[in-house]
Amino acid sequence: MPDMTRPRFNVQVVMPTFVITGQIEPVGPWLDFLNGRDKYEIVVQAARVFPIGSAAASVPEHSQVCLIRSNICLIVLLDSAAQQSVHMLKRALMAISHIGPIVCRGEYHMGVDAQLSTYFDDLVGSFFPLTNVDLFPAVAMPASLPRKADMIIANRAHVQVCYLP
């Protein structure tokens, strides 16, 4: 019988008050998986939950934690294989965004005639990709968040400010 397991990808999930490290098994392409109307929770496997603003020396690993999808600010995709199922438009526009507790400088992917001023109104779902991202925590982070990421997936509900550099 063939192996029916889905691939797991290493991620860091930033929420308003937590950073979670672990693995997610998306069902299908990432944006379809995250923007699916039938999803309320996202499961993170082999997870460590770090409260923001806390200097926890040792955080136990949980085999599985459930995150409320709407509370996810952004997901850092740490595996290049995870990024391959994220479909993006070709035109990239560099912008700075304050997403939850993180300031991100990265490329927004949009249509030829699109503008940053209408980008969020035109999104089909809540989650969208940013590429070539520099990450700057606005508060002290408990887990080692990378300073640079090839790709993140952000939740527009947590974008507080967005502007051109």
Describe this structure in words.
By secondary structure, the protein is mainly beta. It folds into two domains: 9-81, SH3 type barrels (Roll), CATH 2.30.30; 85-163, Roll (SH3 type barrels), CATH 2.30.30. Helix content is 10%, strand content 47%. The chain contains three helices and ten strands, in the order E-E-H-E-E-E-H-E-E-H-E-E-E. The longest helix is centred in the last third of the chain and has 7 residues, at 116-122. It is globular and about 50 Å long.
List strands and helices in order, with pairings.
Elements: E1 9-14, E2 18-24, H1 30-35, E3 41-51, E4 61-68, E5 74-77, H2 80-83, E6 91-99, E7 102-110, H3 116-122, E8 127-137, E9 148-155, E10 159-163
- Please give the domain count: 2
Report the C-alpha radius of gyration, rounded: 16 Å
Sketch the major β-sheet.
10 strands, antiparallel
DSSP strand (E) fraction? over 45%
Give the averaged pLDDT, no decimals.
Answer: 92
- Tell me the distance between the termini: 54 Å
User: What is the strand arrangement across the widest sheet?
Assistant: 4-3-2-1-5-9-8-7-6-10
CATH topology of the largest domain: SH3 type barrels
Alpha plus pi helix count = 3
- CA-based shape: globular
Oligomerization: single chain
CATH architecture field of the largest domain: Roll
Strand count: 10
